[in-house]
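If it is no trouble, can you show me the amino acids of a protein and the tokens describing how it folds?
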Amino acid sequence: MPRKIKSIHGIYKKHGRDAFLEAARFYSDHVNPLSIDKTIDAMEARWYDGSCQKTEAEKMVEDYNNGLTLLNGGSQAMDDTGQAMEM
């Protein structure tokens, strides 16, 4: 069984800068293309849901561990965030 990623920083370390930033855009409108640290800080500080139960970072880690992000070939995350990029 594959090990679960515990943090958004772990996702970045595993997949690299460009792939991480591309995937993060599906979870946050505050992706900073010049700074991974600022992007991670912003995602950890902003609520993903209106009920303030989960941050953008927590949602991305949860979806990643469930195989639902762009990084693991999933597309469901893009559909249910409400922030999906126009293609």
About this structure: Helices lie at 8-15, 17-24, 36-45, 56-65, 76-80. The chain has a mean pLDDT of 87.
